[in-house]
Structures are given as C-alpha cells and as structure tokens.
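== Protein entry: sequence and backbone fold ==
=== Local backbone shapes as whole numbers ===
==== Amino acids and backbone structure tokens ====
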Amino acid sequence: MKLKLLILLITISGVAMAQNKELPYYEIPEMTEAYTAGTVAARMVDALGFRFFWASEGLRTKDLEYKASSSSRTSAETIEHIFGMSQFILNTISKEPKTTNKEPLSFKVQREQTLLNLKKASDILRVSNNLEQYDTERVQFWNMINGPISDAIWHCGQLVTLRRASGNSFNSNINLFSGKIRN
C-alpha cells in the first residue's frame, strides 16, 4: 500500500514538473552569442521571468493570503502588481494593441500570463538593434530598466520572503546564478 502511494506521488510530481516546463522560464534560455543592447535587455527580462517562475511556483492559498503586516501587500496582491508591470513592459515595446486586464484573474491565470508577457517582451527585445525605438513621450527605455523591470525583480524577492514566512520555502535546487535547476 505504501509503495503504491509512493508511486502515485512520484507520478503526480512528474506530471506537475512536465506542466511547469510548458511555461516559459522553468530555466533561463541559452545565452546569445553576441552582446547587443537588445540581447542584454532581453536577458534582464529573462532573469526576471526565471525569478518570478520560481518565486510563484507552488504557492498555496495560505501563501497567497499571507501578508507580513497590516500595511503590506499579500503575496496575491504582489503577484497582481508584477502581472501589471509585465503588461506595461510588453505594451511599451510591442507593436500590438495595448492590453490591460480589468477583470479579476485567478492566481494561476495571472502567473501564466505574466510569464507569457515576459517571454514575448524578451523575444521582441532580443532582436532589437535600437532600444530608443521604444521611447515614448511618457517613457524612455532607460525608465523601463530602473522602473518596472527592476521593480518586478524586487517584488520577486518579496514573494520569496513571504512564502518562507508562511511556511513554504523556496526550492533549494534553483541556481539563480546560472538560471538552471540543480540535479
């Protein structure tokens, strides 16, 4: 009986890991051969995507509702904020119509859409030769770096702290330096 339960848990874990690999940023994509403004900017977004993937991976309802103090955000509110920044980043550099979501979305949908937004933004940036083309009257690309990209990375760190505080530790097999999973 215990062996059957163990096999079932291993199978479920394998299915969950396979589903995770379908989303972008399970690992950081391979490095490009050339350093250009676009490839460096894309790598910054990739690093954000990788950190967000693992900071938000496996969060439970208890984790999403947790907040450090009455004046702070919950993990769910922090994820919603990161989602909004991912929309802003993509909308600023995309030639597609601007999108913002007005309806409340589930954690799962926000997480998936955030990762997809970041992947699209990275793909656009990677082939860009001139980041000034993304400057607008309101926002220069410089502001994208010190604004939403850096801010979202900051908030990923907060998610890790909040998840630890609510009893759900960060995966110790994650190597943030290489952007890979340790075996």
Summary: The chain is about 60% helix and 0% strand. Residues 59 and 115 are 15 Å apart (CA to CA). Residues 3-19 have pLDDT under 50 and may be disordered.
